[in-house]
């Protein structure tokens, strides 16, 4: 890892070496990342350290998790890759070692929090979309069949002809027609999709 604030690279090397000795490990190699920030996938020394650790089924020892990866997502991805290879991860600053029960628990907790954060984001997005739909506002660049865009560029107004078309599609489906048969019937009468293209089973399914 790079120099932590107030902690030289030499000191980090010494701490890592001491941890290896104290825990009965042989120090196989030392990697010093010269690139700052960014994802782990763009940092050659980090990638080299991960690859070697996986190869020898050893322990990747870092001074701080903040220098290994810039996000919980990246940290978890690295930990998961190491675990699948039969390797482990240890961080001196956070006192984490995935070879221990406590270390494994910490990463399970991080993983749970990461999933929770993603679920929260998904819920907020769905809530925002629902609010826009309720207010009859556009929610994407594509204007849905049955609506047209008002002059304000945001509000949706009813397209009566397209709404009738939708009602016909729903009625056909209710009568037991397949998506493919409905699409074919629309092609037969020369009706175009909202974007002017041909009807396909997937297009009909999306409308339903």
Short key terms for the protein model shown above:
3-stranded mixed sheet, 208 residues, mainly alpha, single chain
| Count of DSSP H/I helices | 8
> Taking Cα atoms only, what radius of gyration do you get, to the nearest Å?
28 Å
What kind of oligomer do you see? single chain
The rough form would be described as elongated
Spatial arrangement of strands, main beta sheet? 1-2-3
How far apart the termini lie comes to 54 Å
Return residue spans where pLDDT drops below 50 for at least 5 consecutive residues.
Answer: 1-5
Q: Biggest sheet, in brief?
A: 3 strands, mixed
Mean pLDDT: 80
Which secondary-structure class do the elements indicate? mainly alpha
Strand composition percent: 5-15%
Describe this structure as you would to a colleague.
This protein is mostly helical and 208 residues long. The chain is 53% helix and 8% strand. The chain has eight helices and five strands, in the order ααβααββαββααα. The chain has a three-stranded mixed β-sheet with strand order 1-2-3, with helices on both faces. The protein has a two-stranded antiparallel ribbon with strand order 4-5. Helix 4 packs across helix 5. The longest helix has 34 residues, at 101-134.
